């Protein structure tokens, strides 16, 4: 599969490494252009680089991993009909206040889906710290395999992403549609906590819409 990645930061690069290791073709992009990505090229063997538009055109599926405040810059016309993976989270200190999110009236992935009305948006990779993506990936069936939550309105796109997660080293838990994806947004019990499928299901069920937990403490060495 060809995977385009919009955002060459911590999450984009970690997913790119896993996808390349699984045999996929990957193009990373950022906002400043490919001439600024020589360290990415030399640091990730086999990766291609381009503009955000290049990555959107390149991908059979396209990951969006950028600061949420820039979601409206994602090139919608090149993503029509495609599965778009949404790893974005809302941090008001970084992104500025988005009142509909502050009022718990919508979800981060619904905002992106409204910007990409002809794409199939799947919320995934937002609830794991970037370094954990490469550290926690395990082969199918490993006893300590971690599960990640996935939400989407389109069942075909969701199934495609669950298969991709399995290839990349993770089990999945279906968390419902995009309007349910608040259950694993920032400050919910499932956010960036290593859990297996049973633990993740329990954490998703325990989430309360307007209750925000304190920031997760990193306990990993
Ligand atoms: N870091 C984590 O552990 C983690 C975990 C889960 C989810 N997330 C979420 O994933 C998203 C990305 O986080 P990150 O930590 O990977 O960010 P990051 O390291 O700060 O990198 C952000 C990347 O996005 C690019 N970018 C910014 N605006 C862009 C635009 N308009 N078009 C194309 N590319 C653009 C930046 O490129 P330029 O420098 O050229 O602007 C940079 O390559 C955030 O929403 C974050 O909350 C992060």
UniProtKB/TrEMBL annotation:
InterPro entries assigned: NAD(P)-bd_dom_sf, P5C_Rdtase_cat_N, STEAP_metalloreductase
UniProt keyword annotation of Oxidoreductase present: yes
Highest taxon of source: Bacteria
Pyrroline-5-carboxylate reductase catalytic N-terminal domain ranges (all copies): 2-89
Keywords associated with the record: Oxidoreductase
Keyword Metal-binding in record: no
Name recorded for this polypeptide: Pyrroline-5-carboxylate reductase catalytic N-terminal domain-containing protein
Source species: Pseudomonas fluorescens
Lineage: Bacteria, Pseudomonadati, Pseudomonadota, Gammaproteobacteria, Pseudomonadales
């Amino acid at each position: 599969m060809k995977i385009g990645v919009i955002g060459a930061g911590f999450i984009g690069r970690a997913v790119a490494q896993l996808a390349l290791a699984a045999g996929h073709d990957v193009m990373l992009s950022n906002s400043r252009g490919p001439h600024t990505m020589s360290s990415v090229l030399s640091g990730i063997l086999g990766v291609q680089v381009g503009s955000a538009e290049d990555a959107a055109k390149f991908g059979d599926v396209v990951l969006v991993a950028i600061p949420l405040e820039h979601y409206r810059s994602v090139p919608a016309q090149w993503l029509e009909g495609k599965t778009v993976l949404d790893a974005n989270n809302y941090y008001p200190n970084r992104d500025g206040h988005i009142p509909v999110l502050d009022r718990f009236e919508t979800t981060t992935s619904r905002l992106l889906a409204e910007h990409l009305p002809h794409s199939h948006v799947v919320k995934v990779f937002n609830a794991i710290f970037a370094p954990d993506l490469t550290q926690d990936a395990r082969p199918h069936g490993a006893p300590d395999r971690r599960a990640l939550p996935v939400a989407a309105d389109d069942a075909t796109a969701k199934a495609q992403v669950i298969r991709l997660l399995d290839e990349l080293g993770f089990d999945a838990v279906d968390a419902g549609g995009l309007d349910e994806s608040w259950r694993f947004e920032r400050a919910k019990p499932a956010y960036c906590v290593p859990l297996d499928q049973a633990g993740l299901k329990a954490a998703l069920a325990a989430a309360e819409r307007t209750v925000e937990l304190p920031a997760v403490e990193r306990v990993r060495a």
